[in-house]
Specification:
This protein is an alpha/beta fold. It has one domain: Aldolase class I (TIM Barrel, Alpha-Beta Barrel). It contains twelve helices and ten strands. It has an eight-stranded parallel beta sheet. A two-stranded antiparallel sheet has the order 1-2.
Length: 344
């Protein structure tokens, strides 16, 4: 039996627990929340086409991300200021993710130090903004590498922060003063995103990190996907920032196949945005993803039950992936192919 019933139920519980301003800040999209709404609905536009009479007595959900073994193809996306949802914050999410055998991506906009997270995390990556103070960005990256981050996730869709639909008076403050309090305690323009970031910064991040793989997050176009790979990206991450940046941007379910087609098998491809069930994860695999990530579901799970809630959410999604694979006639993630979905 799944440990978590539905996403809607989890969100309802979090809404009851959290102060309205905090819930609104975590839940909001940008603009009129057009992209936020279409992200969820888009996955349902790809009905599954199951195979029959396959031996699925044993199903293996395990896979790898950039060579790291993981229990399933569903993981935790970077979201900022996680202590707003629960006192354990990033450390709680990292522990719950590790307990479930998944991979955690830590946000630059974190409210815990790298040491606190690294102490309880399983495999983890650092999400990176190239900040206006590039020396500060370099110090964050160097410190993350020293603390055990296995990759960097460059968020590329945020030259500026978009206006949100549900304005909230939440004291989120600056960025890296939380992530690396031992190095910096400030809240000024240097900690803002740098709008002059280009493809060249993929190589720069790899260099300052001592050679960590760089995953580019925010890719929605095939031509951008090719440019990222040519600039040295190790993997691509199809995302529209959970509907929090350009409102009206393409739903990730509709962008995924184009990105995969543009790069073939040259690199791994990941996706987030509206992933709510194990069936959505299998759809994502069929459309070309190697793995799928969840953002808000992990926040709601954290809000309701701390690290145990995150563990239970991911364990439930793992079970749903297992069931969906079996019912689709697949014994493993590797057996998911594009013909398992019908295109709209």
């Amino acid at each position: 039996m799944p440990l978590v019933t539905t996403y809607d139920e989890l969100e309802r519980r979090a809404r009851e627990i959290l102060p309205p301003d905090i819930f609104g800040y975590l839940a909001t999209g940008s603009g009129v929340e057009e992209t936020l709404a279409t992200n969820d609905a888009a996955w349902r536009q790809f009905p599954l086409r199951p195979r029959i009479l396959r031996d699925v007595a044993r199903v293996d959900t395990g896979t790898t991300l950039l060579g790291t073994p993981v229990a399933s193809p569903v993981h935790v996306a970077p979201t900022g200021y996680q202590t707003l949802a629960h006192a354990s914050g990033e450390a709680g999410v990292a522990k719950g993710t590790a307990d479930a055998g998944s991979l955690y991506v830590l946000s630059t906009r974190a409210t815990a130090s790298l040491d606190e997270v690294a102490a309880v995390a399983g495999p983890w990556w650092l999400q990176v903004y190239v900040l206006r103070d590039r020396d500060l960005s370099a110090r964050i990256v160097e410190r993350a590498a020293a603390c055990g981050a296995r990759a960097l996730v460059l968020t590329a869709d945020t030259p500026y922060v978009a206006a949100k639909a549900r304005a909230a008076n939440v004291p989120v403050g600056g960025s890296a003063r939380f992530l690396i309090p031992e190095l910096v305690a400030r809240d000024d323009e240097g900690t803002w995103q740098n709008p002059s970031v280009t493809f060249d910064d993929i190589g720069w991040l790899r260099e300052v990190s001592g050679g960590l793989p760089v995953v580019v997050k925010g890719v929605l176009r095939g031509d951008d996907a090719r440019s990222c790979v040519e600039a040295g990206a190790s993997a691509l991450y199809v995302s529209n920032h959970g509907g929090r940046q350009l409102d009206g941007a393409l739903a990730t379910a509709f962008a995924l196949a184009e990105v995969r087609a543009a790069v073939g098998e040259e690199c791994e491809v990941y996706v987030d945005g509206g992933i709510r069930t194990g069936r959505d994860v299998v759809r994502a695999l069929a459309l070309g993803a190697n793995a799928a990530f969840v953002g808000r579901p992990a926040l709601w799970a954290l809000a309701t039950s701390g690290s145990d809630g995150v563990r239970d959410l991911l364990s439930s999604l793992h079970e749903e992936v297992d069931e969906a694979l079996a019912l689709c006639g697949c014994r493993s993630v590797a057996e998911v192919t594009p013909d398992l979905v019908r295109y709209p």
